[in-house]
Structures are given as C-alpha cells and as structure tokens.
Amino acid sequence: LEQPPLSTEILTLTRHVLSEQIRLGAAATGDLTLLINAIEFTSKFIASNVRKARLINLVGLAGDTNVQGEEQKKLDVLSNDIMVNSLRASRKTAVLISEELEEAIIIEDEYKGKYCVVFDPLDGSSNIDAGVNVGTIFGIYQIRPGSQGTIADVLRPGSEMVAAGYTMYGSSANLVLSTGHGVNGYTLDPSLGEFVLTHPDIKIPPRGKIYSFNEGNSLHFHPPTVNYLNSIKFPPSGKSPYSARYIGSMVADVHRTLLYGGIFGYPVDKKSKSGKLRLLYEAFPMAFLTEQAGGIATTGTKRILDIVPKTIHERSGVYLGSKDDVLDVIKFYEAEA
Ligand code: AHG
Ligand code: MN
Ligand code: MN
Ligand code: MN
C-alpha cells in the first residue's frame, strides 16, 4: 500500500493560537498565547497523572471537603496544585479562581500579569476511580483597565471572557479552545508531546438526536423540564425518540454534544434550587464554546453568558447544545410563564 508523504506541516496549538492572534491583529504582546501555553502544559501534566492514577495510588479520596461540600479526590487536589503553580509561574495572571479553593488567589506583584483564570481543575471526579473520561475546564478574563486584580475582575458576565476551553482526558487528550473567533479542537500527540489541530472550526449541528440529563433527578424536575423530556421521548407518531447519553462528566457530555449535536441539561430543580453546575468555571466556559460553535446556552429563561455572578462559586441551571433543540426547551419555559 502506498503511504501518503509524511506531513511536516503540523499545526500545533501554540503555533495555531499565535498565528490566529497575529491574523486578528491582537498579538501586540503575545501574553494570551503564553498564558494558553501554560494552560496547555497543565493539561499534559494532568493527563499524564490521570493515565497513571491507578499505578501510582492516585485513586480515592484526599480526606478533605471542598467549599461546595464535596469530598475531594486525590486527583482533584493534585490537578488544582498543578494549575495554581503553573498559572502563577506564567507571570500572566492576576487572579485565580478554582473549584477546589474557597477564596480567590490574588497573585503577588512579582508574578502579576493581566489575566484572570477561572478553572475546574478536574471535572467529573466521581468518574475517576472507574477510569471514565474526566477533564479540566477554564475561562479567561482580562483585568479591567486600572485594576490590580481583584474578584471584581471575575464577577463579570461570561460574555466578557476573552477565551475559554476544556481538555478532556479520554482515549486521547483533547483540548478544545475558543478565543472568541470560533472553536478549535486539538489532540495530544503523545510521541510529540504536543497538542495538534485535529478539529478546526467546530460547529454544532443545528439539531441532534441525543439528550444528556441526569434523569435520576426526575422526581425533582420542574414542569418545563419534564414536559420537554417527554416531548423527545414520546414524539408524535412517525418521528424517532431521542437517544440518551449521560456520562456524568460535564466535559465529556459537552464534548459529545459539540461534535454530534443534541442537548445537555443540568437544570435548576426543586431540590437543587440554584442548579448544580458552577457559573464561573463550568457553565460560562461551556456556554462560551457552545455559542462560538453556533449553539445556544440558556438557563431556560436567560442567556447564560449574560448572568452577572455575585459570588465566585455561584451556581446556575444549564441547557446547552444544538440551536433547534435548545429553542425547543425554551418554548416549554415560555409556555409555563
Ligand atoms: P466536578 O467533578 O468538577 O465536581 O463536577 C461534577 C459535575 C459535572 O461534571 C457533571 O456534569 C455533574 O457534576 C454530574 O452531576 P450528577 O452526578 O449529579 O449527575
Ligand atoms: Mn467537585
Ligand atoms: Mn466540574
Ligand atoms: Mn472538579
């Protein structure tokens, strides 16, 4: 069999981000590129630990509880430390917000830069010990003009983020990123140790066939959620019902939704009155990517990226995915209003 010639034109993440910044005339300093480079490094580091977790005794609990009242896993704590250290050392950050830290980290002057990073170091921790996909989610704000970096710089609507993304640690590590001009996906080539552009300009299909909810919470769901789910499970005769896929790692469920289309939902319900997912480092980055890929992200009644957070660990209901599917949910909320 004839082999295609070996390509020497590999578009790595750093090269791609840099060329995009230059193309957009935004690369005056290259600071954002360097920051993304630091995040890319944390993804490689965390990916390698996720892969070895069973071998080096990284499975199981760390023994502490985080501010959300969740038991921290060893990999939650390790991934958080990896991110804090690398982001501080990048000298590009001023404020760091992590799911695993009750308070914001304000970077000392010596290391201070102009960006704020909000992150979920390890998303899907309940899946770690079973070897199921987990990930890291991040969002980036630039400090406001004149600010030295305070939490006011991150208590801003998600639409003001300058970039957002996630890395999914699965059969391969996939980094998906938007700097506000579309969405691109990169896959870690382990032999090169580089993320390589594999999914340029990701667009969510306008309608999908998959729904992704934790239906175990059905008892608590509000009527618009129940009515919407019934509409896709019991469609008018002649139409096929939707397929269910729910991994329980937001990163993995959103990744599939971006690529295949359909809808992911973790709504506010009678028990979780504010929802479960955290605005700054779960809902906002994923809503940012969804919109950049041509989809919609809503609470059911409000665009997620328009919410102004009052506290750093605030939660929100979330529906996101294919435009037509999410518009269907919104109709059930309008009918209820
Ligand atoms: P984390 O592991 O970072 O705490 O996030 C867990 C989140 C998210 O990944 C997922 O979508 C959701 O919790 C799953 O919740 P349920 O187990 O309630 O379905
Ligand atoms: Mn958690
Ligand atoms: Mn999470
Ligand atoms: Mn987490």
UniProtKB/TrEMBL annotation:
Q: Which reaction does it catalyse?
A: beta-D-fructose 1,6-bisphosphate + H2O = beta-D-fructose 6-phosphate + phosphate
Name the enzyme's class.
hydrolase
Any one Pfam family match given in the protein's UniProt record, by short name:
FBPase
Where does this protein come from, organism-wise?
Answer: Russula ochroleuca
GO molecular function list:
fructose 1,6-bisphosphate 1-phosphatase activity; metal ion binding
Instruction: Spell out the protein name for this chain.
Output: Fructose-1,6-bisphosphatase
Output the InterPro entries linked to this UniProt entry. FBPase_C_dom, FBPase_class-1, FBPase_N, FBPtase, Fructose_bisphosphatase_AS
Biological processes, Gene Ontology terms:
fructose 1,6-bisphosphate metabolic process; fructose 6-phosphate metabolic process; fructose metabolic process; gluconeogenesis; sucrose biosynthetic process
Instruction: Tell me which GO cellular component terms the UniProt record holds.
Output: cytosol
Q: Which UniProt keywords apply?
A: Carbohydrate metabolism, Cytoplasm, Hydrolase, Magnesium, Metal-binding
CDD domains (UniProt xref) = FBPase
Q: What is its EC number?
A: 3.1.3.11
* Similarity comment: Belongs to the FBPase class 1 family.
Needed cofactors: Mg(2+)
- Is the keyword Hydrolase in the record? yes
Q: Where is the Fructose-1-6-bisphosphatase class I N-terminal domain?
A: 12-200
Which Gene3D superfamilies does the UniProt record give? 3.40.190.80, Fructose-1,6-Bisphosphatase, subunit A, domain 1 (3.30.540.10)
Q: Which NCBIfam families match?
A: PRK09293.1-1 (NF006778)
Where is this protein found? Cytoplasm
Source organism superkingdom: Eukaryota
Q: Specify the pathway.
A: Carbohydrate biosynthesis
Q: How does it assemble?
A: Homotetramer.
What region holds the Fructose-1-6-bisphosphatase class 1 C-terminal domain? 204-333
